[in-house]
């Protein structure tokens, strides 16, 4: 089976429940079908290749929006269906101020006992003047979190499985740790943590973290003028052999203080930037890392995975992400001693 679509089903469910906080089975069912369609159409070559000015005009023209064959029309129809559900959810939370947590704490966490989904916190948020976000602003935030958080996490999981099934030693060490119960803490880092880090290092999903310069930047003897984009190349940094010796090898031990010198681990951690860095560091990094740990553990408790083909999968560009060319093709066999379900 290809593992990436299976991971997408899980990460979509997480966004719908943890971020959108939707519990109603009917609305969940509708979004389960609509959101992948929206992502597919929004990223489709048919829509992306329409020049931006033509696209804007087509999106604003009631006449053109009646032409069902146009990619812009197909996009707007699905988007409007999704929006209708999201606006119902936003209105529902607004109508229940007591259960919306009242106010989000300064650190962004919900009041104790209140719902902790992101939508509830967005509804409860107030700016310095006490103003709430508009419905449209909340909807935009939810869509941003969906687009940024759903395929990225699924693809990272698929790559980690793709690497693990081709590195039997690492797979055996991980399964042994999981079978032993609570992951053994080695200097605060479990083998599971190290596998997640190494998966994201060996196969980063996002290529860069661009910044638009508002002033001249001097870097490595070059002067780059204001108005240019400057970006670290995430894959280049993560394969720097001075920081990550034998970068082509999948070796979680490089993040384990027990197996590698503390200085080398600290250096590896400093250069580990699959989530970008600085002020615009990924807002969902902690959620993504938690998801990856839980999903890896739960899958490997239930099934034994092996590579469907021996050769490594090629990297394929999909929108702005790098995905496994065969979607992470694995053979999954139920574990006789494993958890059921
Ligand atoms: C393994 C999964 C993920 C990867 C590899 C990833 C990667 C990234 C990267 C490279 C950036 C740009 C950082 C920069 O410019 O310095 C970013 C930004 C962002 N990510 Fe993620 N991300 C992941 C998961 C998530 C999740 C689960 C969410 C939310 C549910 C999320 C929400 C965001 C948001 C909102 C931003 C923009 C932050 C800002 O500009 O202030 N991401 N992510």
Automatic annotation (TrEMBL):
GO MF assignments: heme binding; iron ion binding; monooxygenase activity; oxidoreductase activity, acting on paired donors, with incorporation or reduction of molecular oxygen
Annotated positions binding heme: 282
Superkingdom, natural source: Bacteria
Transmembrane in keyword set: no
One Pfam family named in its UniProt record: p450
Keyword Metal-binding among UniProt keywords: yes
Needed co-factor(s): heme
Keywords, ordered alphabetically: Heme, Iron, Metal-binding, Monooxygenase, Oxidoreductase
Family under the similarity heading: Belongs to the cytochrome P450 family.
PANTHER family: CYTOCHROME P450, CYTOCHROME P450 12A4, MITOCHONDRIAL-RELATED
The protein's name in its UniProt record: Cytochrome P450
């Amino acid at each position: 089976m290809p593992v990436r679509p299976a991971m997408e089903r899980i990460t979509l469910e997480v966004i719908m429940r943890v971020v959108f906080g939707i519990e109603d089975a009917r609305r969940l069912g509708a979004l389960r079908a609509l959101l992948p369609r929206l992502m597919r159409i929004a990223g489709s070559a048919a829509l992306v290749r329409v020049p931006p000015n033509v696209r804007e005009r087509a999106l604003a023209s009631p006449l053109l929006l009646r032409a069902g064959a146009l990619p812009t029309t197909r996009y707007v129809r699905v988007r409007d269906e999704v929006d209708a559900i999201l606006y119902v959810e936003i209105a529902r939370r607004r109508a229940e101020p007591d259960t919306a947590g009242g106010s989000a704490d300064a650190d962004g966490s919900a009041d104790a006992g209140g719902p902790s989904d992101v939508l509830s916190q967005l509804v409860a948020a107030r700016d310095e003047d006490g103003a709430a976000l508009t419905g449209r602003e909340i909807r935009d935030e939810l869509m941003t979190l969906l687009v940024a958080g759903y395929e990225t996490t699924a693809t990272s999981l698929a790559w980690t499985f793709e690497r693990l099934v081709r590195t039997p030693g690492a797979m055996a060490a991980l399964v042994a740790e999981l079978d032993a119960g609570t992951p053994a803490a080695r200097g605060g880092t479990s083998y599971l943590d190290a596998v997640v880090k190494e998966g994201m290092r060996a196969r980063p999903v996002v290529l860069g973290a661009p910044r638009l310069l508002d002033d001249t930047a001097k870097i490595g003897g070059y002067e780059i003028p204001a108005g240019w984009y400057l970006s670290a190349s995430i894959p280049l940094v993560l394969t720097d052999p001075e920081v990550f010796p034998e970068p082509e090898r999948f070796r979680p031990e490089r993040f384990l203080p027990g197996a590698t010198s503390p200085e080398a681990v600290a250096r590896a951690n400093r250069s580990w930037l699959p989530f970008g860095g600085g002020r615009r560091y990924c807002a969902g990094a902690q959620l993504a890392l938690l998801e990856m740990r839980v999903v890896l553990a739960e899958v490997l408790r239930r099934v034994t995975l092996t590579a469907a083909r021996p050769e490594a999968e090629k990297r394929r560009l999909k929108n702005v992400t790098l995905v496994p060319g065969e979607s992470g093709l694995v053979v999954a066999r139920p574990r006789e001693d494993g958890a059921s379900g």
